Amino acid sequence: MTADTTPARTWLDTLRPYAQPRPVAMLFLGFSAGLPFLLVFSTLSAWLREAGIDRTTIGLLSWVGLAYSFKLLWAPIVDRMPIPLLTRWLGRRRSWMLLSQLALIAGLAAMAQGDPAQHLAILAVLAICVAFASATQDIAIDAWRIESAPLQQQGTMAAAYQLGYRAGLLMATAGALWLAGEFDWRIAYLTMAALAGVGLITTLCIAEPEVRISADTVLREQRVLDFLEAKAHWPRPLRHLGGWFVGAVVCPLVDFFARNGTTTGVLILAFIGSFRLTDYTMGVMANPFYLDVGYTLQEIALVAKGYGVVASIIGVIAGGIGVTRLGVVRALIVGGVLVILSNLAFATLAFARDPGLLSLAAVVSGDNFAYNFAGTAFIAYLSGLTNTAYTATQYALFSSLFSLPGKLLMGASGFVVDTFGYPLFFVYTSALGIPALLIIRWLSRRMPPQSRA
C-alpha cells in the first residue's frame, strides 16, 4: 500500500492566499465600501442623538439606508450601461466605481457642513445622496470581486473584503466619534470624505476582470435577439429599450430560477432575506444604547469600536477559514448561532446598574467576532449563487434582499426600546435570527450551495 505523501496543509498555507494581489486590492475596496455605510447609519444616529433628536426620529431616519436595499432597481444599469468616456478608459466595472466614489467624496464633504438641530431635512437629503452613491459603488465592487477570481478563491476574496470593510466601519465609527469628541462633527465628516479617496486610488490601480459566458447563458440571451426580431415594427428606441430590459432584468431572474428550481430558489431568497435581521434591527440602537447606559463618546470610540477591531479581524479570518474547512453551509449555521448569542449578551449590560468598560469590551468583542464570522460565510455563499453574465444584477438582488427586511424592521427599533426597554429589545433581535437557521438547515439537506454557471 502506497503511503500518502501529500504534505499536510498548515495554518500558514491557509493564510498565504490573502497576500496575493487580488485579495490585497479587495482589502482596499472593502475599506471604500465600508467607510460610508455607518456615516449615514450608526454614526449619524450618534450625531443626531447628541444634537437632541429624539430616538423615534433617529429610528425613522435610519430608513436613509434603504438605498442599499433598493439598489436592485438600478443594478441592471450598472451591469449593462456604459459611461461615456469612462467605460472606454477604465472598463465596465471600474468606470462605475470611479463615478460613485467621486460622488461619495462630494456628498460626505457636503454633510460636514450640516446642522441637525437647525437643518435636519437638508442633512437627511445629503445622507440619502451619500447612501445612493455608496450603494452604486457596492454594486460595482461586488461584481468586480466575483468576476476577478474563480469560485474556489471566493472565500479568500470574501474574507479580504470583510476585513477591509471592517476597517472602513472602524474608521467611520471609532475614528469619526473620536474626531467629533476632540473637535466637532464637521472635522469628522471632512476627514471621512478625504479617506474615501482610498477607493478612488485603488480603482485606478486595479485591472478590469475578464468575463467568460457559459453556453446556457448564451442560449438565454438569444431571447433578446428573438425579441428584437419579433418587434421589428416598433420604433427603434422602444425596441432597443425592450431588448435591454429583457437582457438586463428578465434574463438574470430566469437564469437564477433555471439553475435552482422554483421551490429551492424561493427558499434561498427567503434565507437571504432573513439571515441578517438580527444585525440590522439591533445596529441602529447600538450607539444610543451606549450613550443611554452612560458611556461617553470617547469611551465608545475607544472600547466599543476601537477595542473590538481585534475581534473583528479574528472573526473575518476565522470566517474565511471556516468556509474552507467546514464548507459554506456549516459556516453559515455556526455564524448564525454566534450572532444570536452575542445579541443576548447585550442584555447583560442593560441589566447591570453600573457596567464598566471591561464588560462593554467583552460584549462588543463577542458581537464583532460573531458578526464578521457570519458575514464572511454569507458573502461567500452569495458569490457562489451568481452567474458571471449577470453578476451585478444578481448579486444586487441578493444583497438587496438580505438588507431590505432588516432595514424595514429597524425603523421601528426606537419604538420597541421606548415601549419595552433595552433588555426585551435584545431578546427580540436575537429571536429574529432563528428562521434563517431553520431554512438553511432545510436547504443543506436538499442540495449543496450553487456554484456559478
TrEMBL record:
TM spans (from-to): 24-44, 56-74, 95-114, 120-142, 163-181, 187-207, 266-286, 306-324, 331-352, 358-383, 395-416, 422-443
Membrane topology: Multi-pass membrane protein
Annotated ranges, domain Major facilitator superfamily (MFS) profile: 22-447
UniProt keyword list: Membrane, Transmembrane, Transmembrane helix, Transport
Subcellular location(s) per record: Membrane
Pfam families: MFS_1
InterPro entries membership: AmpG_permease/AT-1, MFS, MFS_dom, MFS_trans_sf
GO-annotated cellular components: membrane
Top-level taxon: Bacteria
Official protein name in the record: MFS transporter, PAT family, beta-lactamase induction signal transducer AmpG
Species annotation: Fontimonas thermophila
